[in-house]
Amino acid sequence: MDPQNQATTPTQAIPMGGQTTPPTPKPKKSGGFLSILVKLFLLIIFGSALLLGGFYLGSKSISQTPETTPSPTVASSPTATIPSPTLTSQKTKAVKAGLTGGNFFTPYIIDIPDGWTDARETTVAAGIDKLTLTKNGYSVTIYQAAMGGGGCLYPSDKPAEMSQTFTDFTDINGKSGQFRRSWNEQGGAKTLSYTVCKKGSDNSYGVLTPFGAISVASPNPAEPSILAEIDGMIASLNKQ
């Protein structure tokens, strides 16, 4: 045998027992640079999907947020129900009037704002009491005496006997019930006359109230702020 060949040939150790140990297999390479690119590309796609999903959910929640819509306002016509004003923001004085011991009318108290003048005429023997409130050509009169009454009718009501018909009115929510300052337009007249009617238990309106017959007069056209004061005074009427 050639000595050089003996030097280059590896010598395998043979364990005792005569069995040869197989060589340990080397791990396979994972795929190299191309595998890294694929994983990076998938990671970018996954991250983009998360961002887009978050943006979509956020925009959807914003779009579903209810918006506050202002309540519509309805312009009132002359025959519409109008809430009565109050005199709570004005300085007022309480005036007492009316007959005591009457069969139908009752003594009452009314709140009068600054700027109004009150005058009372009473004849107890005749059963008459009259309170007159005045300001700058406007007046309110509350009259108690022996007299007949009648009904108040409006455009939507059926005709009835012993009733007055009015084309216009303003509702007044008073301490002692529901009133209407009622009138008819009088063209070029310099003054307007109003009748205050009170709602009864049968939902009809009449010219006689527990405090007497109430009438109002104003220039034509009337100033809304002074009419508001008048309505506030009527709303304040109450039994003593």
Provide the CATH architecture of the domain at 92-239: 3-Layer(aba) Sandwich
The string of secondary-structure elements, in order, is HHEEEEEEEEEEEEEHE
Q: Looking at CATH, which topology of the domain at 92-239 would you report?
A: Protein Transport Mog1p, Chain A
How many helices does DSSP assign? 3
Shape: elongated
> Distance between termini?
148 Å
What does this structure look like?
With 240 residues, this protein is α+β, with helices and mostly antiparallel strands. It has a domain at 92-239: Protein Transport Mog1p, Chain A (3-Layer(aba) Sandwich), CATH 3.40.1000. The protein is built from 3 helices and 14 strands. It has helices at residues 3-8, 33-63, 224-236; strands at 92-97, 108-113, 117-123, 128-135, 138-144, 151-153, 163-165, 168-174, 177-183, 191-199, 205-206, 208-209, 212-219, 238-239. The strands form 2 sheets. Strands 3, 4, 5, 6, 7, 8, 9, 10, 11, 12 and 13 form an 11-stranded mixed β-sheet that branches. A 3-stranded antiparallel β-sheet has the order 1-2-14. Mean pLDDT is 79; it is low at 1-21 and 65-84.
Defining traits:
single chain, 240 residues, alpha+beta, Protein Transport Mog1p, Chain A, eleven-stranded mixed beta sheet, three-stranded antiparallel beta sheet, 3 helices, 21% helix, elongated, disordered N terminus
Secondary-structure topology with pairs:
Elements: H1 3-8, H2 33-63, E1 92-97, E2 108-113, E3 117-123, E4 128-135, E5 138-144, E6 151-153, E7 163-165, E8 168-174, E9 177-183, E10 191-199, E11 205-206, E12 208-209, E13 212-219, H3 224-236, E14 238-239
Parallel strand pairs: 6-7
Antiparallel strand pairs: 1-2, 2-14, 3-4, 4-5, 5-13, 6-11, 8-9, 9-10, 10-11, 10-13, 12-13
